[in-house]
Design brief:
The structure is a homodimer. The first copy, chain A, contains 7 helices and 3 strands. A 3-stranded antiparallel β-sheet of chain A has the order 1-3-2. In chain A, α4 crosses α7. The longest helix of chain A has about 35 residues. Chain A has one domain: Arc Repressor Mutant, subunit A (Orthogonal Bundle). By secondary structure, chain A is mainly alpha-helical. In chain A, β2 and β3 form a beta hairpin. The interface between A and B is large, with 65 and 66 residues.
């Protein structure tokens, strides 16, 4: 399964270390607000998809990326890539050839965010059936006017 | 720091187990598409915020929730809660009192998703400075016309 098998033992190990490192309870409360802000930026479907594709494929051109990131519009992909570049998650390289060739690859920071998301991918793969059943039950109740 | 200290040792342990469980490589490719769909639904700022607040506060009324989830609009909160209920992540209880009292709490599935996101919170807390510096550098280059 594409979405999950590209995690190497090292990445899994890194994700484990993330999960194991509990921060001290007396951290500056302003950091809490900043973390929320940052989470808001990275907890985004397209950011996660781009992370996944670039983790798996290395350096990729825009056109290929738009095919690999299933269902993304050109505008949304451009916006996501620019934001990820600004956050230091990826590097954009313009090759001075004709026609110009622009490639994107993850930085070490981007790769580490990919590892941090690993637990969410595994959760989704493990709980698909559970979620499907919940949806069916919910829709059944809603359609019979039970809500 | 609110955002992180509410993780118990058990939750951290659970997140570690998620990170450690590598799924077999020969999974049905349709599952990959379903995982992407599910990820698209849960990798959302407001879903993550609601998960965080309910993990920390247990059962919470709508009005209180709208104050605890910083910056959320009433419409967006209603939509997020309904989607999370449909996915089986939370339970909505209507108490037959006057005025009606509606409370929300996470299911076991919702709590497990919270644990799966643990690595992302830790990543954000650890890499704030890194991201800040990247943004400053990016904005500096952008403003001097270097792009």
């Amino acid at each position: 399964m594409k979405a999950l098998t590209h995690f190497t033992t090292e990445e899994i190990e890194k994700a484990r270390r993330y999960a194991a490192s509990i921060p001290p309870p007396d951290l500056d409360p302003r950091i809490g607000a900043l973390v929320n802000d940052l989470i808001g930026r990275v907890a985004d479907k397209w950011t996660m998809m781009v992370l996944e594709v670039l983790t798996e494929h290395g350096e990729v051109r825009f056109t290929r990326l738009s095919k690999l990131v299933d269902g993304v519009s050109q505008k949304m992909l451009t916006q996501t890539l620019r934001q990820m570049e600004r956050d230091g998650l990826l590097v954009r390289t313009v090759h001075p050839v004709v026609p110009p060739k622009v490639e994107y690859r993850l930085t070490a920071l981007g790769l580490s965010l990919g590892s941090a998301f690993c637990g969410v991918w595994v959760w989704a793969a493990e709980n698909l059936d559970h979620v499907e059943r919940a949806r069916q039950a919910f829709d059944g109740i809603a359609s019979t006017g039970g809500r």
